[in-house]
Model the fold of this input.
Amino acid sequence: MSRAVEAPDTQPIDRARALLRGAHHVVVLTGAGVSAESGVPTFRGAGGLWRQYRAEDLATPHAFARDARLVWEWYGWRRTIVSGCAPNAAHHALAAAALSHADFRIITQNVDGLHARAAREPRAIPLELHGSLYRTRCTRCAHRWDDRSTVDATSGDTLPHCDACGALARPDIVWFGEALDDAVLGEAMTLAANADACLVVGTSALVHPAAGLADLTRRNGGSVVEVNVEDTPLTGSATVVLRGTAATIVPDLLAS
Ligand code: BV8
Ligand code: ZN
Done:
């Protein structure tokens, strides 16, 4: 495990830059904060999505069973908002770093697809822990498909249905109380455990098991660099904390 030689009393961003440059295996964990400057509402912050809605009312299988029309209305509205947003400088800097660094993998909790839109090559496409606003899957058979369509939530009949078996379809998103995809979570945990450095950008670090990935890196001797506008449960154990917005700090941090 390589450890960058850190010059004494340098600025946090210099220390973070040295850590990332000296790391052979870098993993990045992003949350809604990385997309905030693209105009995508975060969940829990001021103006966040869940100010108007409560997570437990919408992002759960029970909510969908109780009122699929309301849940689809919320996801359709989010899909439309995000379609009008563009990747910001943080997404682009992370995508560029994934191409210039030998082993630099992006893992995201976000379902907005902005990392993938910033990626110019497959290896910059992130692991999407919680699924995607732009994928829909069947509630009955294994069929799942890319879906950028506008959702018509007028009635149960106009909601998306599976064109393979005709059953009601649902967003291909991991809701609270649902397990993450085994393969995706397994790969994310392996990447985090083997990383020399974990760069955490724009997450409140409240949602598990995603929030535990940075601890996995740290417990295996790696460093954690946190970029956020405020403290989170990870801040106290991070190797370096960079206080500020993703679109200003990340490009500066990763500039070659
Ligand atoms: C599961 C999809 C088990 C929906 C989401 C311990 C272990 C395991 C589970 C649990 C546990 N404790 C509790 C649980 C249950 C639960 C959980 O974690 N609850 C929390 C709330 C306590 N976890 C689950 O249910 C998970 N499932 O564990 O299953 C299981 C196993 C077997 C069989 C059955 C079950 C599933 C979790 C996934 C839930 N789905 N999203 C949707 O998107 O609609 S989670 C949701 O929160 C989003 O995906 C989001 O990504 C995620 C985390 O939020 P953030 O991305 O961090 O966003 P947030 O707004 O909170 O914060 C933004 C941050 O950015 C802030 O810090 C802010 O300061 C910062 N910021 C703002 N602007 C900027 C910025 N930073 C930089 N620059 C800026 N400009
Ligand atoms: Zn089906």
In short: The chain has a mean pLDDT of 93.
